[in-house]
Every structure is written in C-alpha cells, then in structure tokens.
Write the structure tokens for this entry.
Amino acid sequence: MADLDRDRILALSYVPAARRASVEALWKLDLALGNALAGGREPLISQIKLAWWRESLEKLDRARAPAEPGLQSAETLLLTNGVTGAELAAMEEGWSVLLTPEVLGEDQLALYAAARGGRLFRYTARLLGATATAEMESVGEAWALVDLARHSANQPDAESAVAAARQRLHRLRWPSRLRPLGMLGALAARDAAPERPSWEEQGAPRRMVRMLRHRLTGI
C-alpha cells in the first residue's frame, strides 16, 4: 500500500501506540481508494477499480478477506475495532465523484467532502475511542477538500475546493485523544487561508510547529 504523506505521518505519531496500527490502516485504505484514480486518462478503468474496492470492503462483513494487504488490514485492524466493511465501502462514494470529466460543482464537492473526509474523521475518532461531533466531521470535510485542491491539476476545481473548505472550518478545542485529527484540521485551515501564496510542502518545519501547538493547546 502507498505511504502516507508527511503531515499524516506526524499526526499518526501522536496516536497512542495501542491504536496506531488501526488508524494507519484506515488512512492507508483512504490512499488506496485515491490511488484507484491514478492515471485518470482511462476513467472506465478507475471506475472498475473503485467498484472492486467497494464490493470487496462490503464483503468483509460476511466473508474472510482475500490476499490483498489493504483488505487484510481492514479485516484484522478495523472490523475488530468497530468499523464495518459497509462503512468503509461508503468512502468510495466520495472518490467516485472525481471521475466526472467536468468541473466539479457545489453538490459534487459536498458529496466528495462528506463521503471521504467526514467519514474518515468519524471512523478515526471511533478508533481513538471517541465520537466525532458534527463540527469535527465538518473539519474533516474541509481537510479532504484542501487535499483535493493540493493534488488537483484543474485550477477551477482547486479554487472551488478551497472555497468550499473555508465554509466548513470551525474553531474548536479538540479533546486530547482526538488531537491527531485536530492537527490535520489545523493544517487544512492554514492551507485554506486567503493569504496563502502557494502550497507549503507537507511536513515542512512551520507545519510541524503548527501541529505541535495544536497538540499542546487543542486549538
């Protein structure tokens, strides 16, 4: 499976050791779904790959995982910690939105944000032994939209995604056990700031400082 970006690697380092492998498995599953869209010149192939992931994750609720690392990790680390295969499969809905050849509209961005980012934050919070509030899931949506903008080659889509992210950000004080998620939210707010001149490199020192400040204060 693909490696996490440096922002998420640092956030993961603040997850308690007993829960770290489960959170990592979830975050890497998110990457695997995104990688199904790689080389988007053949949208039909990407659609087939995403459909395979969705069906395979749904089957985990009633059958053993096949010999695929992401599915085996989901079975051993996620299903055993309260996240069902059907819930994981629902994240595919967000990624499939990106298969449209047209500029993404408000409704499409909202579906992508909720199905990917909102659910990712919800499931991560559960793995951390807590429940994400609606505001926290909204921050997760903002994080996903910023991540989309960061990696998009389509400037109109990127600008629309950042604008939509700003509408979903909330100033919260995150509880200690959920601060690894709050760190990602803090970086999303930093990236969505109107005065941002360009994308900061993930894992850059100033981003690390911002994450550490959040770890200490919760804001």
